[in-house]
Design goal:
Blueprint (H helix, E strand, L loop, with lengths): L10 H18 L3 E8 L2 E9 L12 E2 L3 H15 L23 H5 L46 H15 L3 H10 L19 E3 L6 E3 L9 H4 L2 E2 L1 H13 L7 H8 L12 E3 L4 E5 L2 E10 L2 E8 L4 E7 L7 H15 L15 H6 L1 E5 L2 E7 L5 E5 L8 E5 L5 E3 L8 E6 L5 E6 L2 E3 L21
Antiparallel strand pairs: 1-2, 1-11, 3-6, 4-5, 7-8, 8-9, 9-10, 10-11, 12-13, 13-14, 14-15, 15-16, 16-17, 17-18, 18-19
Helix pairs in contact: 1-9, 2-4, 2-5
Length: 458
Amino acid sequence: MMGNEGVGLLAETARACGWRLATAQAEGRAPSMVAAVVRDGRVVWSGARGELPEGVAATDVQYRIGSITKTLTAVLVLRLRDEGLLDLGDRVGTHLDVPHGGDATVAQLLSHTGGLAAEAGGPWWERTPGTLRPELTDVFGERPQKHPAGRRFHYSNPGYAVLGALVERLRGRPWAEALRDEVLLPLGMVRTGYDPREPYARGWAVHPYADARQPEPTVDTGRMAPAGQLWSTAADVARFAAFLTAGDPNVLAADTLAEMRAPATAPEPASWDGSYGLGIQLLRHEGRLLVGHGGSMPGFVASLWTTPEDRLGVVVLANATSGPSTGGLATALLDEVLRREPTIPEVWRPDPAPDPELVALTGLWYWGTTAFELRLGAGRALTLAPAGFVSLRASGFRPEADGTWTGLAGYFAGETLRLVRNEAGAVTHLDLGTFVFTRAPYEPAESVPGGAHPEGWR
């Protein structure tokens, strides 16, 4: 269960987080700013600065979350895939009559590699009503296809309008209704929705050179809603952060969530530390891979970053069009918590029923003359890694129903590991994508491709 107020960090850590928040709100000149830290699925700290409604918890005040909406839309699409209603390699046009983007695959639209334009046609879509773009055809402007599908990463808001329409086509109901019933309610995000509900923060444009401001328009973006329409609270986005770190089988299988978090595009030359998964932004920061998304709409900016390996996440929401660095504050809060209170590892527990044959196979194996260590984990999971040094040829392996294992990382990702047996049923060697691993290096009796020299070692 999620907590409502932050109780759980040491006093000095909480004070440091509060100082970070106060500094970011003042220097960014945000009318208000709310932040929350999530650890092990619950809010352990929250704070707020600036103008906020009286008598309610700051973490229950709604803000617009902009493109964090895209990650929620992506969850809906992955649910369709898991149900067998589509494949990520399908051309979008096989499921949806769309004027542009139909040649891109579902995965390419999710990862912004479909080549579509960054913005919708017509006037600034985030500040004008969706009635100006009533049909999917109206979402696209001149030259809607900027790059060949699959060529490169090019962030596309219309691409997510298409994905929202795809959800509606396959579900037979509005995108917002499907999102509410399939994702928001199961995760307990009851204060997240299409339209604002009191208490909610008003959006402001703050003058860049004067301490003055004016209201920003709040519009229904219509067909563009799956790209950035949603309103939410720090408490609700914290629930989503907990989902991104630990998952929820009622919403997505753990393997599917891991698939979303894997890089699907190469980093752009101007940003080698950043990449994109399936609806999720990725950032390499201080040696950690951060997973999440940023968001902005006129009058609002938001950031959600998590580090699944540390079971930690941060949410920052503010109500100014520009100025507040929600992303900078989010990573600073992560740094403060991890530096002052490092994540305690999970308790090691023995496998209650290890496979005796696999236990006997653990230890040293040789690919040629290179020693690898085979280790057995719970549930018949294996790891194989070079002994004594770090290498891209290290990987975990997932057990399959047919008695093989599938590689999960590095050079061996997706490759099949098999136990090769002799006529008596004894394991003679390991076959990993045609790589042969034997118990001794180049022994004449071993199954070495090309054979071993008959004179042996000398």
